[in-house]
Write a structure and sequence with these properties.
With 315 residues, the chain is an alpha+beta fold. It has a domain of 79 residues. The chain has three helices and 18 strands. β10 and β11 form a beta hairpin. α2 runs antiparallel to α3. It holds the Pfam family DUF2125. InterPro entries: DUF2125. It comes from Sagittula marina. This is DUF2125 domain-containing protein.
Length: 315
Amino acid sequence: MKRYVGLVVAAALLWGGYWAVQAWTLRSSIEDWFEDRRLDGWVAQYDDLSVNGFPSRLDVTISGIDLQDPEHQTGWQAPFLQILGLSYQRDHVILAFADSQQVLLPDGPVTVTSDGLRASLVKTDDIIERLNIEAEVLNINGPAAEAALAGVLFNFHHVEGTDYRLALSAQGVATPGGSGSDAVDVQALLGFDQPWSLDALNNDRPQPRTATLRQASYHHEGLELDVAGDVTADEEGRMSGELTVRAVNWQALLEQAREAGTLPDALADTLRDALSVAAGLSGRRDTLDLPLTFRRGDMSFGMIPLGEAPRLRLP
């Protein structure tokens, strides 16, 4: 019996030592990452860093986070981030986010408030294989747009090479000046110029080169918008390709975009007049079924030129 007790004690001591080494290594790697970012010219600060979870977990809590990359004019500020994982399964972690955080982009800061925002990340070596994000409520307030979403699910899965499958859905969406929608659903296959890795944050971002939009739908109270098609992007993000757009009760869509501030009044009036003619030619004035065409960075909707298209490029 004493021999068995001795073996149990020895095993416990060995496991405790193993856990302590893992915890120390993990803490050191995070400290080194922040220090490396500071040497790169970033603002990279935190108030506190702790590793807990003995005996079987490695749970990290970083509080008072302030990250700013001056080269890309991007950053992130949050009261805390929790990185939760098992000590014997290091390639899979759960990320738990604060209810309020701020994302810094070249166009200005974006405030994100949420309930139940968390993510699951699976990697092989440093390559991201699966990233799943969910939130009961997600509110986004930025200089370009405002939106409130409920029942949010986001999936980003590595298919092979530099190809990734993206899926985004929300059970409800509301924008300023409009009522909430029933649902939003996006399904796409994206090809990048390099695989996504954990180093993408502190190096050049992988940039999209091809996009197959299998489905993008927005439906609410008789209003329907469905988009699908293929586009490519050059090194500057200039798009070429075509998307098929089908819109039922499209006039209401224009008014929602105008009231939300995402479509200038002058452009909304021009589109309404031109699209009324196009819809009348199709036989149903409330329904549009037209191509959105991209050619070397310019875009047109049917026969209506819209000027320079947004760049398909990550900051």
